[in-house]
Design a protein that fits this description.
TatA/B/E; membrane; mainly alpha; 92 residues; single chain; 46% helix; translocation
């Protein structure tokens, strides 16, 4: 893909001036600059957060007791089991 020619750039600038007007262009450029500055700051903070190692020691929220693990004997009955009724059904 080729870079845009000088004529194409001039046409784009002319359209922007016609849409926003010459008086509002500095305000638009200022708000875009502020937005880019905030975006770069947030990206930098996210990269810094990713580079910090996780805290050592026991992890909070993990299973600490045997009751937190699922019990395979209390699994819901399967639809193939003839002694059960399907959910929302009346049986036979």
């Amino acid at each position: 893909m080729r870079p845009p020619s000088l004529l194409q750039i001039l046409i784009i600038v002319l359209i922007i001036v016609l849409l926003f007007g010459a008086k509002r262009l500095p305000d638009v450029a200022s708000s875009i600059g502020k937005s880019l500055k905030i975006f770069k700051k947030e990206v930098t903070e996210l990269r810094e957060d990713d580079s910090t190692p996780p805290p050592s020691g026991p992890a909070s929220g993990g299973p600490t007791s045997p009751s937190a693990t699922p019990n395979p004997t209390t699994a819901p009955p399967s639809a193939d089991d003839p002694g059960t009724t399907p959910p929302g059904g009346t049986g036979r």
